[in-house]
UniProtKB/TrEMBL annotation:
Transmembrane segments: none annotated. GO terms for molecular function: 3'-5' DNA helicase activity; ATP binding; ATP hydrolysis activity; DNA binding. The lineage of its organism: Bacteria, Bacillati, Actinomycetota, Actinomycetes, Propionibacteriales. Belongs to the helicase family. UvrD subfamily. It comes from Tessaracoccus bendigoensis DSM 12906. This is DNA 3'-5' helicase.
Amino acid sequence: MLDTVTADLDDAQREAVDHDAGPLVIAAGAGTGKTRTLTARVARLIDSGVAPEEILLLTFTRRAAAAMTSRAAALCANPAVTQRMWSGTFHAVAHRIVAEYSQHLGLEDVTVLDPGDVTDLLDLLREEHGLTGTQQRLPTSQTLADICSRAVNTGVPTRKVMADQFPWCLEHADRINELLKAYVTRKRDRGLLDFDDLLIYWRALLADPLVGDRLRARWNWVLVDEYQDVNQIQVDIVRLLRPDGSGLTVVGDDAQAVYGFRGATAEHLLRLHEDLGGSTLVRLTRNFRSSQQILDLANVVRPGELRLDLVADRGPCGPLPVHVQCANADDEARQVADAVLAAHQDGMDLRDQAVLFRTGTHSNQLEIELRVRGVPFHKYGGIGYLETAHVRDLIAAFRVSLNPIDEISWYRLLTRHRALGKVSARVLAARLVEGTDHGDIVAEAPPKARTALANTLDLIRAAAATRIPAVQVEACLKAVEPLLRQHYVDWPRRAADVDGVARAAAGQRDLRSFIAEATIDPTSVSGDWAKKPHLDEDHLTLSTIHAAKGLEWRSVHLLRASDGALPSDMALSTAEGLAEEQRLFYVATTRARDRLTIYSPMRLPVHPTSLHSRHVLAKPSRFLTDKVLKAMESTLSPGVQAPASAGASGGSVAPTVAVPDLGELFG
Ligand SMILES: Nc1ncnc2c1ncn2[C@@H]1O[C@H](COP(=O)(O)OP(=O)(O)OP(=O)(O)O)[C@@H](O)[C@H]1O
């Protein structure tokens, strides 16, 4: 009889799927079917009679958890039961467990702080610690949050973190440490947990003899995807969940570890295999994704200890990867748009094509070019918290309607009022938390802010008076909409997100868990719910390399393979930073199935966020070594060849078109 679970697997993958309960480490290169194998193993466990509740599947993104659960369901004899399995990101599962055991942790209520809340809270506290003023350069709240998070995630004291990463902060080290201590105390007093705390509290529960045993008894099977990206706290959690390694399966590729800034290190994968006596190491080397031409390049790029030369299951087919040298970022954008449209004309759907880049701003020029040419696209990743700020504003209103002592959310909401500055917002937020009558609060506000503030407080009170999510959401939306309309110059672009998130929230049975989810993964919340209608049409994908992990397309265009962009100039100062950039380069090249095109503009904008500022000369990326270039076809874009753009190589260009002198306008 055909075994549906392993029918589509090769021998090495099947060995992993059918492995017994002993600890199992699957270490393999890109495109070798790690995800497919892990999914099949889940299906195999369920079909062999393991209760789905006993299985815990940990992934790095919500998208991956959802995709793996639905694929496992499709393989199972009884698909419905997979819904009972535990699956999600480390943070999402941590939140469920911490909420369940909140009493044991001395927490009345669990409020999760997103990274924006963390900087708001640090903003609230810094004045008391003498870290405000303009007399000297002081660390921003974002830098303070980074110092704290690095220390917590790596177990390295803050002073050493500062010495290594933020040396100019050292002179304020005492005050910074006092502030961070106050930050921790404030969080503990108020039951506020930032993302790092979620993991720390989960680890603490597992380390507790009583609760730990209960949690361990809950899951006999723990499967972890992308193990190369775990940090030390996550390693501890995994080890505490399955101390002897039984029932544990981890999957990863050390050459794809790209989260060093979160304290992850590629060594965790191999160290786990060494530490767990008797663990089985399965290596997968057959690549089912790309043509051999693309893999020949990837094999040269591939760093890491595991010398895995990938062999294409499909054999040699398709064109060599192409390296295109372009005049500048505009030229690059035109080349990419031309190539995408040409492939589309030849029958390749836009959804089969992607453009990848190191940093969100690298696609600025391309986005304009695509809009002009009417090419629909969707951008993933690199969405800074700033860009989801409007969603977070609405969520701040939900939060204060549920919890009137949520000072950070009050502060956020108050600062959205036109006539309220940070100082007034800080004072009024504290007064609201004390329970001061709303009428008195309005009277204490600067006169110009009073009307708007009275309106906000009335609506929040109305929202707080009901427990029907739809009614509550409507009142909150009414409260924030007029504020945001004034606050954001690009409000029309943001309005659809806010509406979409409000609609999704109104349809929930429990607003609290919606808020927690939106806090833990705000970009996917706005991406999943607010933008869904557009995603149904054929569209091109624009994505940061980080957000492209685990995905694949027939044709991949990689932008800005120039020194300073990839590798990023931020990473050039340390060997680890550079190694991580090289792994990112590897991740990018291995996303392509049939075609890979890498672009190196010879001039780059000085300021990456501006579109029309000064440009500097840029060399092709140092990762494009002679060996790598040998595996490619090299071309010059017509923009470089044409004499009119000779300036691309750096010289000044003699103008051929007269530009009107606008001087008279400014006389
Ligand atoms: N045995 C197989 N037969 C045919 N196709 C396969 C097989 N195993 C995997 N594939 C296909 O190969 C591609 C890569 O698989 P998958 O995404 O599971 O790899 P991965 O190792 O997780 O990749 P990466 O680490 O690069 O994200 C997918 O299109 C998958 O469907």
